[in-house]
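PROTEIN DESIGN WORKSHEET
SECTION A - STRUCTURE
LENGTH: 443
TOKENS:
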């Protein structure tokens, strides 16, 4: 009974509103918050997944803060507490909450770091199917995406990915959010020309630390490096190895290899030989790293899906700050040629429905984006001078596939040129990342 009392005391501490106490919650809101709020009215469980330290718990508490419900009808349980990581204990805590709720009104149950609870899908399926007026929210890591767990809750769960901070969110935090208009060039001349140095400074800061909300106001280079290494990289790898019952050291070394070849082709066989492990195991570990949101892979663009799957892939680390921390790069790395691949990675991680292009003759285009049925090739040339030579691959690709517009992401140049019947938008990285969806629609 003493243990049960302790559990109840911890639960009450996690729910200070039950005692009329206020909680301090960051006021900065991620873009995903408003989207989640639109789905509260539906019965389905809402799950928030994402890399460690991107703000999943903060979003949950902001959702709680915005609810119009009796305080006793809102319950938050964090499974970070090791005592709560038992099926029977979790069941007792949820039943304790439900016992004192007003069953005639909507009840809200928030379960944070749910992946730490064994057999959590079975428990939630029971409550979902048997309790009326109960809305369940979850947050957790990649294990939420594992096939067997998703199948248990098929039709009962909607999953939202919370990515690292986008550049538009990062710039919004510093009062520099930008949304493009129909005449982006005219607006650039009138409103942005005098601010472009500030935007460039913010973008460089974003490359160094912009992934994680807790680092927004931190300037200490050593602290940023330690925070990312210990709180993100090492913890994520430990989570993966524990959930998959695999070798933590090998997974960590694999991640180091991939980070060291960010924005480049990778071959499973070569990695297998380097790590001296079975190639099927390498494939499994790469998949786990991707499901944990530490990396992203994209395929080579071909006309055949079957052929696409057989070709080599490119992989990108979730954010440039993770690369800088993992490889112990100094902040001055963003002043070197390495920055081009860092920027390419930021762009790939900011968009969906992407491929890259590499022909048998090794002709390359960094990114091929799909916008509906349209293909838009994108080259990243994060440099001060752009020459005609820099445009030849994207023009050749465009003409081969009858594409009439393309994008070259630059450091400073903002222009639009018709070159060999292809309209090319040259646009600074900070401007492109500020509002790329509208920019696509307008040029």
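SECTION B - SEQUENCE
RESIDUE ASSIGNMENT:
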């Amino acid at each position: 009974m003493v243990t049960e009392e302790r559990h109840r005391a911890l639960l009450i501490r996690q729910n200070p509103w039950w005692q009329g106490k206020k909680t301090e919650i960051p006021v900065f809101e991620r873009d995903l918050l408003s989207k989640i709020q639109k789905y509260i009215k539906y019965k389905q469980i809402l799950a928030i997944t994402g890399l460690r330290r991107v703000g999943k718990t903060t979003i949950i508490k902001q959702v709680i803060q915005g609810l119009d419900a009796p305080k006793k009808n809102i319950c938050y349980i964090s499974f970070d507490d090791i005592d709560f990581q038992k099926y029977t204990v979790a069941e007792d805590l949820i039943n304790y909450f439900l016992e004192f709720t007003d069953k005639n009104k909507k009840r809200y149950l928030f379960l944070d770091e749910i992946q730490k609870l064994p057999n959590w899908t079975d428990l939630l399926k029971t409550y979902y199917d048997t309790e009326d007026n109960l809305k369940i929210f979850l947050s957790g890591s990649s294990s939420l995406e594992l096939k067997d767990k998703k199948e248990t809750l098929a039709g009962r769960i909607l999953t939202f990915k919370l990515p690292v901070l986008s550049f538009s969110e990062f710039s919004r935090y510093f009062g520099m959010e930008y949304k493009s208009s129909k005449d982006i060039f005219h607006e650039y001349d009138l409103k942005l020309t005098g601010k472009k140095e500030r935007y460039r400074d913010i973008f460089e800061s974003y490359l160094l630390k912009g992934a994680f909300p807790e680092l927004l106001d931190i300037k200490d280079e050593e602290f940023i490096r330690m925070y990312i290494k210990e709180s993100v990289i090492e913890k994520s790898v430990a989570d993966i190895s524990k959930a998959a019952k695999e070798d933590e050291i090998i997974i960590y070394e694999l991640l180091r290899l991939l980070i060291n070849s960010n924005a480049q082709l990778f071959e499973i066989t070569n990695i297998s030989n380097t790590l001296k492990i079975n190639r099927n195991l390498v494939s499994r570990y790469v998949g786990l790293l991707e499901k944990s949101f530490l990396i992203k892979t994209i395929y080579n663009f071909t006309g055949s899906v079957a052929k696409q799957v057989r070709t080599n892939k490119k992989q990108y680390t979730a954010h440039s700050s993770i690369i800088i921390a993992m490889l112990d790069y100094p902040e001055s790395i963003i002043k070197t040629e390495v920055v081009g691949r860092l920027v390419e990675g930021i762009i790939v991680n900011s968009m969906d429905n992407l491929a890259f292009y590499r022909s048998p003759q090794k002709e390359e285009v960094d990114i091929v984006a799909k916008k509906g049925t349209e293909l838009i090739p994108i080259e990243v040339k994060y440099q001060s001078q752009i020459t005609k030579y820099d445009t030849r691959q994207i023009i050749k690709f465009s003409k081969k596939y009858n594409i009439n517009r393309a994008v070259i992401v630059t450091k400073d140049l903002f222009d639009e040129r018709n070159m060999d019947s292809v309209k090319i938008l040259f646009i600074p990285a900070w401007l492109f990342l500020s509002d790329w969806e509208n920019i696509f629609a307008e040029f």
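SECTION C - NOTES
The mean pLDDT is 93.
Residues 2-161 form a domain with the Rossmann fold fold (CATH 3.40.50.300).
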